[in-house]
Amino acid sequence: MATNSRIEWTEATWNPVVGCTKVSPGCKHCYAEVMARRLQAMGTPGYEHGFKKVVLRNEKLIEPLLRKKPTIYFVNSMSDLFHPKVPSAFVESVFETMQEANWHTYQILTKRADRMADFLRDKQVADHIWVGTSVENKKHGVPRINHLRRIEAKTRFLSAEPLLEDLGPLDLDGISWVIVGGESGHGARPMRPSWARSVQQQCCAAGVSFFFKQWGAHGEDGVRRSKKENGRELDGRSWSQMPSTL
Predict the structure, then answer these.
(1) In this structure, what are the phi and psi dihedrals at residue 26, rounded to the nearest 5 degrees?
(2) More confident residue, 164 or 226
């Protein structure tokens, strides 16, 4: 069944695909890779190859249909639905499940926004399906926003986690929601307050919902502490806004 999530901006995870490959600096310390290795060591079904091999899990396709309580699902927290090794026919099967189990809300986040836009070309995405892309830096992340905007969807969102640099001016036209967070775990790179503050201020000016997820391994002062000690406040305030379309 679905796995209840500790991720602050969702309620449960649904993983019909496991495994991925790295495409940009945001992938360097991938939390899913670490978790997959841990699950592999525990002998958890579906993680026999850890994170090294993209595995399609047909048995997971029916999970949302079995859960009758309306739930916000993060789709493929342990992979990327639009990885090139995921056949379009399987992606179609995932969308068919989301269409059928339409009492849930689905959050699809990808670093392959170009493929997602091509796949959804000439398609109207149902309102209960949100489409998002990762924006960790200017070079790799920001260009993904234009691909995301090509998709006909009510809710488009950005995940700037880990936020690795000042993103500069952002075109937030057509964007409903932005998540910002610092990096956690071994080797985590610090996030400067000014980078997060710039995104928050641009969201406020554009009327876009803003969610500050975490500082990560380094706090607002740049000192490395536990994630719990660093907290979730930006400039003394918690930001947990969700899209108005929810």
Answers:
(1) -65, -20
(2) 164
Confidence class for position 244, pLDDT limits 50, 70, 90: confident
Q: Which residues contact 39 (CB under 8 A, 6 or more apart)?
A: 46, 47, 50
Q: Which two tokens stand for residue 136?
A: 């960790």
pLDDT for res 23:
97
CA distance 182 to 164: 8
State the Cα–Cα distance between residues 66 and 80, nearest whole angstrom.
Answer: 23
CB atoms within 10 A of CB 37: 14
Q: Collapsing DSSP states into helix, strand and coil, what is residue 181?
A: strand
Structure tokens that stand for 39 in this block:
């699950």
- H or E element, residue 211: strand 209-214
Q: 172 φ, ψ to 5°? A: -100, 15
Give the chain's domains with CATH numbers: 3-238 (3.20.20)
- Cis peptide preceding 16, ω within 30 of 0: no
pLDDT band at 73 (very low <50, low <70, confident <90, very high): very high
Alpha-carbon dihedral sign for residues 119, 120, 126, 127: positive
- The residue type of 106 is Y
Q: Is 92 helix (H, G, I), strand (E, B) or coil?
A: helix
Euclidean distance between CA atoms 111 and 133, whole angstroms: 6
Cβ neighbours of 200 (radius 10 Å): 20
